[in-house]
Write a structure and sequence with these properties.
It comes from Nocardia caishijiensis. The protein is mainly alpha-helical and 238 residues long. It folds into two domains: 65 residues, Arc Repressor Mutant, subunit A, CATH 1.10.10.60; 145 residues, Tetracycline Repressor, domain 2, CATH 1.10.357. It is 59% helix and 0% strand. It is built from ten helices and no strands. The chain starts with 18 loop residues before the first helix and ends with a helix. 32% of the residues are buried.
């Protein structure tokens, strides 16, 4: 999602905007109240507020005015950063896959075996899905995601799924397990979304990657895979 400012107001105001709102769209405009959201930029604050409302109140039940109110800005000011509510949703969805997708691309060039790389990817992905302030993965179930508007996000998610399946196939080839199992790792990672919704245990951070490497046929000591994957993630984070 681009950070470029987009203003949708062409020949008049949006529904609910006052004349003052339209006339004062400049970046120096004062807030309605003091900053109360996490984030170092207004855009980040908008995303934080929307993430909370979309995951607790529902996407369909949340208006851009409600998001603006939760940030403490005018609705017209929100439109400086996002032209519409679905742009906010798209940005939030992109956050959930950007990190693991980038990691997956880097992992393919690393010398470690496929099982170690698969464990590292799953561990990173589970941690970021579980560690986000709001359970953004729950937004994957929205019916709106099946529309053409979110086709680009679906493609990016499919690319991430493809990385999982490639690493799984490489691991399966080494262990002799049926390739039918290659589709399971990606699905298992996303079970953390439901676990989080149910206030499940933090141990899921390790339980899910452990289960994934067992599914692809690893029979050795789990500690060795964990140590190798942790070292790999540490090296790449540097």
């Amino acid at each position: 999602m681009s950070d470029l400012v987009r203003c949708p107001l062409r020949s008049g105001s949006r529904a609910g905007d006052t004349i003052e709102d339209v006339a004062n769209l400049g970046p120096g405009r004062p807030r309605l109240e003091q900053r109360r959201r996490r984030g170092t930029t207004p855009r980040a604050e908008i995303l934080d507020a929307a993430a909370e409302l979309f995951t607790t109140k529902g996407y369909a039940n949340t208006s851009t005015r409600a998001v603006a109110d939760a940030v403490g800005i005018r609705q017209a000011s929100l439109y400086h950063h996002f032209a519409a509510k679905d742009d906010i949703l798209d940005a939030l969805l992109a956050e959930t896959i950007a990190g693991p997708a980038e990691l997956a691309r880097r992992l393919h060039a690393e010398p470690e075996d496929a099982t170690t790389k698969l464990y590292a990817l799953a561990l990173f992905d589970v941690r970021q899905l579980r560690g986000a302030r709001w359970n953004l993965g729950a937004l994957y179930l929205l019916p709106e995601l099946r529309t053409e508007r979110f086709a680009a996000f679906r493609r990016r998610r499919d690319e991430l799924r493809g990385h999982y399946e490639q690493l799984a196939v490489e691991s399966l080839t080494a262990t002799g397990v049926s390739e039918d199992a290659c589709v399971l790792p990606f699905r298992l990672v996303e079970t953390v979304i439901a676990i989080r919704s149910d206030d499940g245990p933090a141990e899921a951070d390790r339980v899910i990657p452990d289960a994934i490497v067992r599914i692809v046929g690893h029979q050795g000591a789990m500690d060795a895979v964990r140590v190798a994957a942790d070292a790999l993630l540490d090296r790449l984070s540097d």
